Amino acid sequence: MSTPSPCRPTIDIAALLAALPDRISDLPTLAAARDPQHVALIEDARRLTNAELVNAVEAAAALLRQWGVRGGDRVMIVAENSIAQIVLLFATARLDAWALVSNARLSAAELDAIRAHAQPRVTAYALESSRDAGQHAQRHGAAEAPHIAPDIGAWSYTADASAQAEPVEAANHRQCAALIYTTGTTGAPKGVMLSHRNLLFIAAVSSRLRQVRPDDVVYAVLPISHVYGFASVCLGSLYAGATLRLAPRFAAEAVRRALADEGVTIFQGVPAMHAKLLEHLRTQGHAWHAPRLRFVYSGGSPLDAALKAQVEHVYGLPLHNGYGMTESSPTVSQTMLDAPRSDCSVGEVIPGVEVRFVGLDGVDAAPGEVGELWVRGPNVMLGYYRSPEQTRAAVTQEGWLKTGDLARRDPDGALHIVGRSKDLIIRSGFNVYPAEVEHVLNAHPQVVQSAVIGRPVEGNEEVVAFVELAAQATVTPAELAAWCAQRLAPYKRPAEVKVLAALPAASTGKILKHRLREWL
What we know:
Largest sheet: 9 strands, mixed
Strand content: 25-35%
Strand order of the largest sheet: 2-1-11-10-12-13-14-15-16
Number of helices: 15
Number of strands: 26
CATH class of the largest domain: Alpha Beta
CATH topology of the largest domain: Rossmann fold
Radius of gyration: 22 Å
Oligomer: single chain
Number of domains: 2
Structural class: alpha/beta
CATH superfamily of the largest domain: ANL, N-terminal domain
CATH architecture of the largest domain: 3-Layer(aba) Sandwich
């Protein structure tokens, strides 16, 4: 393991856990006690100070209580990143109900399936920042919510008097705070139950490792309906007393303006966001200008070396990387501020978390060898809602979460994710890790991003690549196949390269490979 440098914060995990608040809804109250007039939240239409955020949370909680919400109820919040969304999730937690954060960009079928499974007492729709939320509200016959002070923007609601509450737990490591349905690599969503301690642990550790300060302005475009945007960006920033600049969805020009003109100091995104921002700067002829930016991060899907190099050249800053999943709240590892990496490692395992690398035979892999990554710590979920069988399959009795990801660790402690165990392609008896082929394709100057999957053929599997090209690209599938042939062993080369206008992706930017398998 590498030795922490003098500028890296040392974290006493036992003391940190003991000092965590009881509930995520305590964060606004604590911030208001420290500095009531500090701006907590900014969106295009309005901003709230810490004191105003507390008042808005109390007013929204009073409405939810009036509509019958009790501890253990689910409150579904259909939204894109907005002040109303954050106020509602804290108001839900204030009542010991569970915040079911749902991205308004889900289709009607996806959203209705989640709603039917979770059976929320109240469903709230943040209308002002999301046309899609308005369409869902209209379908569900939602009523307009009364105006509250301070103003948080228009929202509406439906209530279900027949909803059943779950038991309430006093301890923060046992009480569910958030129910987050995963997009899932299989396409079948599962409701991940995350406790207050799960989320507060990640908020505390990630903000300390990033050294977030009250004078930071954090650009929050990663969906707060996704655990990365919720725990690390939203809660982590508010835990540290920083300001959140909320954006409902990614638009390259909006990001460029915020970085140039709004004093943004931290920008966290998935690789596709960085790729699309670079492409926008190139095609529109904009110079890079981000005078206060000090920390840039990539996560949520694999980062390739070519994109990392391009981003660092343009931004003039290290592009930090990390790894996590919904079931681990999400962070498992990240590169450290004082030790940026020249490779695409996802960094060191964060303090307080243990990992193992387990072979197909159930035995721990030798040091440096690839195995399925298992994780244990205060970040591991309570389980899958209403699915004890799936929970038992994912988490051992000793508390180890089986991630389903294949990984290895360098002697210096750096973690490398080599692929999903279920995505592994076995070609003529050889293992092909899709990420390796994707890195080669993504290095082509006309490729924005790629996705590689296996296709069964008689007695074997072959490699199929899907690519999304830059604007005005002229490269052909045959030329991309030749590019791969020069850089990959024969068994790793794609049998076919398919060009798509856009790869199917979740709202986070994560590529949905199960959709590509369905197309094949």
